[in-house]
Amino acid sequence: MAYLTLAVGKLRSRGRRTLRTIVRLVLLSALIFSAPPMAGAGQPDNRRVAAAVQQESDYLGVRKCILCHDRKSRSGQLEATDKEFGFVDFVNLTEFHTWHENDRHAQAYKVLEDNLGKQMGRVLGLDVTKSERCLTCHGTWGKDFRPSNQELQLGVSCESCHGPSRRWFIPHMDPPWRARSSQEKESLGMIDVRNPANRARQCYSCHLGSAAEGKVVTHAMYAAGHPPLSGVEMGTLLGKVPAHWTAISQKSDAIKKLLQYDPNEKSQTKSVVLGGVVALREAVTFFAGRAGTGRQENLEPDFADYNCYACHHDLKKLSWRQRRGYRYTPGYPDLREWPEALIKIGIFQVSNDSASYQKKKREFREKLVKLHAAVNSRPFGDPGRIGSPNDRSAVSGELIAWLDRLIAELASSRYDQSAAVRTLQKLSTPVDPDDSPYDAYPDYDSARQVAWAMINVYGDLDPKPAKDTEINQAFKKLSDALNLEFQADVSKAPGTVERSSQSLNAALRYDPQWFKQQLQLLSDLLPK
């Protein structure tokens, strides 16, 4: 309530605020802190216990957000409160409406109620609409927060991405909040999603998995019909999500100055490079939490925590898998490969010259090889050697610590037109002379990461090179062959949504030699 008192004090001191505005603030505060939980079919039987849990939770729920963020359009007749508090300078106040009407994340819970969800429930012997195993990703489900059925129907909503809001909800309505540092905001629980590394961590907690948060897709779930989590490139995902925000480049000059906007920064390139390193960091963290010393004693190794293609691949003589050789004992399940696909462009970005690049790459390889050796020491790996993700002396923790240092370097690196061009060239020639034959044959999911990254970074180039038409034609070939198209927008035609069968067929047809030829073609076309 201190923030409300401060806000009211400012209204009085400036003499321009009205009694109507003050009354609105008081009523808004009352709604936030005294409104009962939303009623619904999903409420537990013991309503008093449920209400007590809700009171203690850091989550307030969507119903608080829509008090302000549910305008259907930007109107010339904005209400006095919006103008007085400067809300519309930073946000449109149409965020909920845009997200709810257009974003597939808003339908994440509803898919549990459709035919596939019901089928999975029958096979797994659980109610997928109420099981925590499903709701941690298909709804806004946090520690000590058990949303009502009405809340669940809204799927992956505001606090899933922006963080639990109890401690920052009132402060964030006050104009001085805009000038606070991201560290100050994060100390109250708000996640800085403008930061590409933070954004990637938040997205990967579901799109890759988080053992600590219970966000895990098991082999049994896949067998029951869950679509495969075959990897996603963060810059591409962000570009597919219907924007309920306004890009900093489109905001006022005053806000650009406040947010230290750099018109020369290539934000898509930055998102791709940082997202690629965060992908590996989160993959190692997830795996160590599931297969290392941090796993529960009664938890058996789960096939889904490993590389699906170790078992699910074509069976024919002299396949490209056989030609490239093995980095594990044949028959042993190994780590997923795609999270490693973009690590080189991260190392390349922070290297001043070839010697620096080789040195950093050797450091990385040494730590990665230790992890692979621990996983390959016996089927499903040795938990004691893999260790805990929080133990920096263990092989997993040592690699995570190294990746954290790289992420910190990348966060302060410069991403201009020159950096975008260099990144494209590195992506189009991903195999270094000292790489092993194994590295020369990227698997299907790794190839998709590289292709998505190239298309995204190329979108940053301004002006475009003279051979723009030929480059886009080459990208179209890659997109068709690797099934790169997917949609996060509900307004798009259903036929454009990625289907598991399409992806599996594309993986079966995939030829790494053809992929390398396409990369060479692009390398010749792209600017140097």
Describe the structure.
The termini are far apart. The chain is mainly α. The protein folds into two domains: 40-192, no CATH class; 267-525, no CATH class. The protein has helices spanning 2-14, 19-34, 47-56, 62-65, 80-84, 87-90, 95-102, 115-124, 132-138, 149-152, 158-162, 182-187, 196-207, 219-224, 234-240, 253-258, 267-291, 320-324, 343-349, 354-376, 383-386, 395-411, 417-428, 444-458, 468-482, 500-509, 512-525.
Protein traits:
528 residues; 51% helix; globular; disordered N terminus
Domains counted in the coordinates: how many? 2
Task: Write down the overall mean pLDDT.
Answer: 86
Given helix and strand content, the structural type is mainly alpha
Quickly count the helices: 27
Helical proportion, percent range? 40-55%
Q: Cα distance, first to last residue?
A: 58 Å
How does the overall form come out from the CA principal axes? globular
The main pleated sheet reads as: none
How many beta strands in the DSSP annotation?
0
- Alpha carbon gyration radius: 25 Å
H and E order = HHHHHHHHHHHHHHHHHHHHHHHHHHH
Q: What is the strand content?
A: under 5%
The poorly predicted ranges are 1-24, 34-54, 493-498
What is this entry, summarized?
The chain has 528 residues and is mostly helical. The chain has two domains: 40-192, no CATH class; 267-525, no CATH class.
List the helices and strands and how they pair.
Layout (H helix, E strand, L loop, with lengths): L1 H13 L4 H16 L12 H10 L5 H4 L14 H5 L2 H4 L4 H8 L12 H10 L7 H7 L10 H4 L5 H5 L19 H6 L8 H12 L11 H6 L9 H7 L12 H6 L8 H25 L28 H5 L18 H7 L4 H23 L6 H4 L8 H17 L5 H12 L15 H15 L9 H15 L17 H10 L2 H14 L3
Helix pairs in contact: 13-17, 17-19, 17-22, 17-24, 19-23, 20-22, 23-24, 23-27, 24-25, 25-27
